[in-house]
Amino acid sequence: MEYVAAIDQGTTSSRCMVFDEGGRIVSVAQREHRQIFPRPGWVEHDAAEIWEAVQGVLADAVTGSGLEPGSVVALGITNQRETTILWDRRTGEPVANAIVWQDTRTDSLVTSLAAHEALFRERAGLPLATYFAGPKIRWLLDETPGLRDRAERGDVLFGTVDSWLIWKLTGRHVTDVTNASRTMLMNLRTLAWDPELLDALRVPAAMLPEIRPSAEVYGHTEGGLPVAAALGDQQAALFGQTCFAPGETKSTYGSGSFLLMNTGAEPVTSKHGLLTTVGYQIGDAPATYALEGSIAVTGSLVQWLRDNLGLISSAAEIETLARTVDDNGGCYFVPAFSGLFAPHWRADARGVIAGLTGFVTKGHIARAVLEATAWQTREVVDAMNADAGLALTALRADGGMTANNLLMQILADVLAVPVVRPMVAETTCLGAAYAAGLATGYWPGTDALRANWHKAAEWRPEIDPAVRDAEHRNWRKAIERSLDWSTT
User: Do the Cβ atoms of 185 and 246 come closer than 8 Å?
Assistant: First the structure.
């Protein structure tokens, strides 16, 4: 038997999974790493610690799991996106802690770049935001004495986490198109570093990795294992869900949620608050693009209900509590705890519970919490349909929240399309494995990957359309009441 492995280097932990030809999990290993918070709003990782953890899980999953030596024939990488690492070319050691995607220290820098907003939107498909890697590079170069001179000479290298791991595994300084598309430095159409974007952010070209497709052999580990794929985590989930045709959409439900829609061979500029990004590129084939909508608070709202209000003692209990009522009792919950993400992008919004009467019970509130995830998904889907000119026909859902069957039914009712949960929920790792397997010939093509995809369950709309429309109007009124709360 031969297998394909994938490293999933996430925000809180590193995992390695090994898959067989049918896309089934053969072995898995996981290790957590530290979260470093030097100041309010700052979030850092130790890149050397991440590398140590990745080495550990790779060894545990591949050599420590009883698999035959040499039976793993390819390795893919998927990673937390936008997290920024700078390291010394000669020593291979980080020159500073990695700045994590959640970090907001570049807020004033991003504000100072406002004159370039249209340029970044048009070339990179991204808004000006602290989220992305480009401003983080600029901050490190500006704030660390002597670092800019070293970077201009090519003595200091930049990479997102994929690039760092490929460097450590193979000695090659490359990144893939999906991760490059999250830097604010890559031209979406040429798939190359854009000189005007580099100039606007004052990032030296000499420090940047070579941009390569998502699936090709980048090099080999010391043990001869081909490192053959890299994708940002959400793009990997799109690939793992085999969303290979325009209009096919996946949504990953965790603490927050990310929806990606395949839009085909041309980037679609969003006019409705979404991000334009590269979905994937397989070898020499043209890149496939996607629209992305990010929702800040979904699963974390359930945690808040448990930890802050004590209405439930475990996340799983919310379904039981919500099933004690037939509807929301007129109650709507907008979880804008730190503003609203897509498609609103309103930092001034704050959470509200609207429509309260003496009739409302904790069961109604629990149901409103689940409905908040569904209505936020509906807003992103409506924006995607409008931007892409494609009508969503089904939603492929993955992530921890998909274990909640009531939520899945509410999603189907709100979206008016079937919602499908796959047999293999670990779609991020699976997507990286699939891409590596394609690059090495382990799988002959995407049709073989589609044949591996099997649904575990499907929910179809059951709600009266008139009721859906009335509920949607009420949700939009609740959104309006969440705006203009914060002035800081």
Answer: no
**For 410, which DSSP code?**
H
Q: Residues 6 or more apart from 335 whose CB is under 8 A from it?
A: 296, 297, 298, 300, 301, 304, 351, 369, 372
The residue written with tokens 């309260």 in the block is 356
- Reference 387, options 288, 292, 469; nearest CA is 292
Residue whose tokens read 């179809």: 460
pLDDT confidence bin for 41, thresholds 50/70/90 = confident
Instruction: Give CA–CA dist 440/357, Å, rounded.
Output: 61
d(CA 307, CA 365): 15
- For the cut 90, the answer to whether the pLDDT of residue 297 exceeds it is no
**If you ran DSSP here, which 8-state letter would residue 400 be given?**
G
The torsion angle over the Cα atoms of residues 265, 267, 268 and 272, rounded to 10 degrees, is: 140
Q: Is 488's pLDDT higher than 60?
A: no
The phi, psi pair for 482, rounded to 5°, reads -85, -10
Enter the tokens of residue 72. Answer: 């793993």
| 243: Cβ contacts below 8 Å, ≥ 6 apart | 249, 250, 260, 261, 262, 279, 396
**Using one digit for the tens of pLDDT, what is the confidence trace for 216-270?**
999 999 889 999 999 999 999 999 999 999 888 899 988 788 999 899 998 988 8
Sign, CA torsion 62/63/68/69: positive
CB atoms near residue 57 (< 10 Å): 23
Q: How far apart are CA 488 and CA 486, in angstroms?
A: 6
- Packing angle between helix 427-440 and helix 233-240, nearest 10 degrees? 80
Cβ atoms < 10 Å from Cβ of 221:
14
**Residue 395 phi/psi, 5° resolution?**
-115, 125
Structure tokens at 352: 């509200």
Task: Compute the distance between CA of residue 192 and CA of residue 35 in angstroms, rounded to an integer.
Answer: 32
pLDDT bucket at 487, cuts 50 / 70 / 90: low
Residue 44: other Cβ atoms inside 10 A: 20
Owner of token pair 């690492």: 85
Eight-class DSSP state of 65: S
Q: Which two tokens stand for residue 336?
A: 């804008």
Asked if 6 contacts 78 with a C-beta cutoff of 8 angstroms, the reply is yes
Q: Single out the residue of 95, 97, 238, 230 nearest to residue 165, CA to CA.
A: 230
